[in-house]
Amino acid sequence: MLVSPGSRVAALAACGALLLVGAGCGADKSEEATTNPQVRLYGSDGNMTNAYAGEFKERADLLDGMKGTTPLTPLPEAFKNRLRAVDPKLTDYLYSAESYDAVIISALAAQLAGSTDPAAIAKQIVGVTNNGERCEKAADCLRLARDGRDIEYRGVSLNRAGFTDAGEPATASYATLTFGEEKLDDGKTEFVGAGDESAASTKNPPRPHRQRTGKAPSAPLVLGGLLPRTGDLAIAYPPLAAGAELALKEINAAGGVLGEDVRWVDGDDGTNPAVAKATVEKHIADGVHVIIGAGASGISRAVLPDVVAAGLVLFSPSNTDAGLTSVEDKGLYFRTAPPDSLQGRALADVILRDGPHRIALVARKDSYGEGLQENVRAELERAGIDGDRVKLLTYEPPADAKAPPLDFTAGAREIKEYGADAVLVIGFGESAQVIRALADSGVQIRH
């Protein structure tokens, strides 16, 4: 179900009003009822995936009833079939469309620039999505670009409006997801629109170059992967990789860019700054022009200075940290994922629908976790939820695979003593330890 932004805001306001009334009545309830309630679990894009259930093994039933949001548009079945042709084992589609669109947009920008020079590509990226002849398929868009015509790409995730001047989507679609029996229940998925089409850029890019006969001197275009094949965000790797691979396959089937097939140099970000920096260093040495990644916002923040210093483009399909909108990037950073300023509203909406009295917001300690936590807190406050009804907790994620597992015992005890009846867990694969700790501490998880 696609809910219009106006009706979603109205519902949020109504929920906030009801909650205020409920809080007043709740003061008469027994101490036991307010300090030891059943707890509803909520998640975000980093853990609302089928792969997340694998982190629990024999205790995956703890997830039953957990709700959350993720940037996700209703995906056409034809697109899913094309993804499964690339990866038959694919069970999740999180950021697959955003990954696909990031690769397509990069290729179109290079074709319009008539060059693989990263600075020239960067100047075309926002314009590829705005104020031209609309096209949706890679082959059609490439044909127009080769003719030197301005285009307005509308892809799988980028289907309502183009990029803002900051190089990110002006609008987005969020899915409200619910875990059923140890996996996501697709029958309960709802879609909510967010953003503002008027925020899309109206600036004109440099004049497009018409392709001459044969290949361009600077061809081929080389893309480098910086996706989380390992680390805490590895649960998101399969759909990210499948989306990029599908786009590359379809671009080259349509004749490539500047007369040659686009090349892909694989690379892992490890959900770890050190691993990601080493991959970026290798990409620079290998002549990569556009880096597709990183997976996590904090990793992109860590490598962006190196990427900018080398004069390359960094284009992430999954960064959502709202602070990246204004990061110093010399015009070389882009993303197809929407900022968490939009997801914060969607998540607050989901939580408020259930009428909680006390809410705990638990986040991994990085730019993604703390940024989204603050956005949700602000939206709850805007809806009338007082600060004493919201508890903020953060945890330090394990440094790498060799580090001891996350121990959230003290945090779980704190949440139980606080009497929360709603707990939002913002994290990646490691956040499973938060939910395990809640259950082990005697918190009654509502299914």
UniProtKB/TrEMBL annotation:
For the Leucine-binding protein domain, which residue ranges apply?
Answer: 222-444
PANTHER family assigned to the protein according to its UniProt record, in alphabetical order: LEUCINE-SPECIFIC-BINDING PROTEIN (PTHR30483), PERIPLASMIC BINDING PROTEIN OF ABC TRANSPORTER FOR NATURAL AMINO ACIDS (PTHR30483:SF6)
- Give the protein family: Belongs to the leucine-binding protein family.
Record-linked InterPro entries: BCAA_transport, Leu-bd, Leu_Ile_Val-bd, Peripla_BP_I
* One Pfam family cited in the UniProt record for this chain: Peripla_BP_6
The answer, when asked if Signal is one of the entry's keywords, is yes
Q: What is this protein called?
A: Amino acid/amide ABC transporter substrate-binding protein, HAAT family
Region (Disordered): which ranges?
Answer: 191-221
One Gene Ontology term of the biological-process aspect is: amino acid transport
Q: Which UniProt keywords apply?
A: Amino-acid transport, Signal, Transport
Q: Which superkingdom, per the lineage?
A: Bacteria
| Signal peptide bounds | 1-26
